[in-house]
Design goal:
Layout: E1 36-40, E2 44-45, H1 57-70, E3 76-81, E4 84-89, H2 91-99, E5 104-109, H3 114-128, H4 133-147, H5 151-158, H6 162-170, H7 176-183, H8 189-195, H9 201-214, H10 218-226, H11 244-257, E6 261-265, E7 270-274, H12 279-295
Parallel strand pairs: 2-4, 3-5
Antiparallel strand pairs: 1-5, 3-4, 6-7
Length: 297
């Protein structure tokens, strides 16, 4: 069943789907492109670049039952390759249609290049809002690598904010064990982002297991991380973390730089710490500072 478009992902799939319906022969003619037509399921192959790696069996069964009752309401999008068709968007509907026992299903044939296919496959899944954070991050990373996009370009193409893209990509730097906890839903993306700044993978995993086993909130995990000894320990004396002025300044700086910011010290002396997690992050912060310097001249 079709779902409402998720707010914030500007380039919706509605604009990609036509409204015409027709049955045609399996060979696509130029005039058939962008028209809804019926294609045999046996001629359709899944997309190798599909961001989703896990398909919920219960959800598929529910969709299959719906398809048995009312049919496939929203066509899938495919690209023709020889005599066969590769799914661009709609693999979940295709799987459910097979489960429902259909022999063919409605599809729109699109002659899109690799960049367009990657974008649409990822956008469709992000709009469904049921990819786990690691699948989202891997999909964004794949799009950037395949298309040569920077974080800013990927964010623009996906209708996301640049900090949101950066936060997703940081999850891929976590140990595989923690990534698996995200996939299984034992930890949230908020928990995982709290662990990213820690340099010791063993400590990351220890805290992740503790948070999952004890059912800690993100705020409780953040408190544990801040209490760890080491270079991230604030300088003394430190303004209270509950100080509204400090929190407001940190939020303002995070909004400007799109990264984690920490204010340390007192009203006379201290430091403002900007975190970066890869070369792109550092270059982005550098660019922002250059622009700020130019605007002040």
């Amino acid at each position: 069943m079709a779902k409402p478009i998720k707010h914030g992902l500007g380039r919706g799939l509605d604009a990609l789907l036509g409204n015409e319906s027709t049955n045609a022969a399996q060979d696509v003619q130029p005039q058939d492109v962008d028209r809804v037509r019926s294609i045999k399921l046996g001629l359709i192959d899944p997309n190798r670049e599909q961001p989703r790696r896990r398909f919920d069996e219960d959800a598929l069964k529910q969709l299959a039952d719906s398809i048995k009752s009312v049919g496939v309401i929203q066509p899938i999008i495919v690209k023709q390759s020889g005599k066969r068709f590769q799914i661009i968007a709609g693999e979940r509907r295709w799987r459910a249609a097979r489960l429902a026992g259909l022999s063919e299903m409605p599809a729109i044939v699109r002659d899109w290049d690799e960049v367009q296919r990657l974008e649409v496959a990822l956008i469709e899944n992000l709009q469904r809002d049921d990819l786990n954070p690691i699948e989202q991050a891997a999909g964004v990373k794949n799009l950037m690598e395949q298309c040569g996009y920077t974080q800013e370009a990927a964010a623009e193409r996906l209708g996301m904010s640049r900090p949101a893209v950066a936060n997703l990509l940081r999850l891929l730097a976590l140990p595989k064990e923690i990534q698996q906890m995200l996939i299984l839903g034992r930890l949230s993306a908020g928990h995982a982002r709290t662990l990213v700044p820690l340099e010791d993978p063993a400590m990351q995993l220890k805290l992740a297991e503790h948070a999952a086993n004890q059912g800690l909130s993100v705020r409780q995990l953040e408190k544990l991380v801040k209490e760890l000894p080491g270079e991230d320990q604030p300088m003394a004396p430190t303004i209270s973390r509950r100080d509204p002025a400090q929190q407001q300044l940190e939020r303002m700086a995070e909004g400007v730089f799109g990264t984690r910011v920490r204010l340390e010290g007192d009203s006379d002396k201290g430091r403002l710490v900007l975190h970066y997690y890869n070369a792109d992050d550092l270059q982005r912060i550098w660019d922002i500072l250059e622009l700020m310097g130019q605007s002040s001249q």
